Amino acid sequence: MKQITSVQNPYIKSLVQLQEKAKTRKQTGTFLIEGKREIELAIKGGYILETLLFCPEVIQNVDYKIFDSSIVEKIEISKEVYQKLAYRDTTEGILAVAQSKALHLSDLKLSKNPLVLIAEAPEKPGNIGALLRTADAANIDAVIIANPKSDLYNPNIVRSSVGCLFTRQIATGTSEEVIAFLQENNINFYSATLQNSNEYHKVNYTTPTAIVVGTEATGLTEIWRKESTQNIIIPMQGEIDSMNVSVAAAILLFEAKRQRGF
Description:
Layout: E1 2-4, H1 10-20, H2 22-28, E2 30-34, H3 36-44, E3 49-54, E4 71-77, H4 79-85, E5 94-99, E6 115-120, H5 125-138, E7 142-146, H6 155-160, E8 169-173, H7 175-184, E9 188-192, E10 197-199, E11 209-213, H8 222-227, E12 230-233, H9 245-259
Parallel strand pairs: 1-4, 3-4, 6-7, 6-11, 7-8, 9-11, 9-12, 10-12
Antiparallel strand pairs: 2-5, 3-5
Helix pairs in contact: 1-2, 5-9
């Protein structure tokens, strides 16, 4: 089995670039995953893993052989190399190089009565990760990022989603493309916005539905407010008029799930 002990190894340097630069991830069509749970979820989610890297000095009670059928190559790395590549200290000494997906809208396979979350132009990796965790918790059909500002394979998103990047179908597109997709598939969409809105709990989400949320700073752009089936609002009873986007998404998605009998 191949071994790498130096952080100056050219391959390790290329993996550092993969961690740090969206351009490199786009050019190579690959990204890094840390941790046993995250790697297992990626395999379950249909991601192709090219290489498994593991550190015997760190690894604890993890049988890397469980990944045999999914990995092209395995490399043993030193603790120094592992610490150079890893973002966290608690990822069991395992990393994997995975092939990214194209994330096309046309690749989505929706149920007969889908429930979808759409986020327009989210920027903070932590918020995107939290949205993906919310989507997983609600077991919805898909997450669509409209006008994406961040590379979804950014290591901070992979990390903050705790593997939920791999558990739901995900697609990206411009707002216009996403709206056209919804209309073509007869999916009603409800935009969370202050303008011309009905209280969220007074709307019927039992038919094919998409919940649309925007950024906390600027909200949704006009096209979402104008084209939506109905604008919706969460009544705010405190001093401020907005909340964290993932919290808002959770409230709206679970109301839809409640109406559907969970």
